[in-house]
């Protein structure tokens, strides 16, 4: 038996192939979109996935203002922040966030699905969320990805 052919190749900075992909968030459910985007950022859809290396793609999400939430979550769910001072609690609903900055909903959901360490912070920098169809990354020639084809 040839044991040399069974060695696992571990990806590193020189062997990874990072691509630019574009995802349309129009009429997509927030949680389902976020989990697939987090997997793309992590590189889990690639055959040479390595857990401790940034081997994922750069993901551009457009039409962030057209994201959907199921049920009454748009009014009932609360996002909680605290300033650290007494009485510094702030509670906002997704409807209030959508009125001010719709990109923040997707960024918050995806960030929660990434690792909570330095690698997660580095992976989060590969996410770009925009309202509308316009984005400044045309020079990178991103490929359009349909999330319904990804499992």
Question: Your description of this structure?
Answer:
The structure is a single chain. The chain has helices at 30-42, 73-76, 94-100, 103-112, 118-124, and strands at 20-24, 58-62, 79-82, 89-92, 127-129, 143-145. It has a single domain, classed as Alpha-Beta Complex (Ribosomal Protein L13p, Chain: A), CATH 3.90.1180.10. Helices cover 27% and strands 16% of the residues. The chain is globular, with a radius of gyration of 18 Å. It has five helices and six strands; from the N terminus they run E-H-E-H-E-E-H-H-H-E-E. The two termini are 35 Å apart. With 151 residues, it is an alpha/beta fold. Helix 1 (30-42) packs across helix 4 (103-112).
């Amino acid at each position: 038996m040839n044991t040399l052919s069974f060695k696992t190749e571990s990806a590193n900075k020189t062997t990874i192939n990072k691509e630019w992909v574009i995802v349309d968030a129009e009429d997509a459910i927030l949680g389902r979109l976020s989990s697939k985007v987090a997997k793309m950022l992590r590189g889990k859809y690639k055959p040479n996935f390595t857990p401790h290396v940034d081997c994922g793609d750069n993901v551009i999400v457009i039409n962030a203002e057209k994201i959907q939430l199921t049920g009454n979550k748009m009014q009932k769910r609360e996002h909680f922040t605290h300033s650290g001072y007494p009485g510094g609690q702030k509670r906002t609903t997704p409807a209030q966030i959508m009125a001010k900055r719709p990109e923040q909903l997707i960024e918050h959901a995806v960030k929660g699905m990434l690792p909570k360490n330095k690698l997660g912070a580095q992976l989060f920098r590969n996410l770009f969320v925009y309202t509308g169809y316009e984005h400044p990354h045309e020079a990178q020639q991103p490929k359009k990805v349909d999330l319904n084809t990804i499992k």
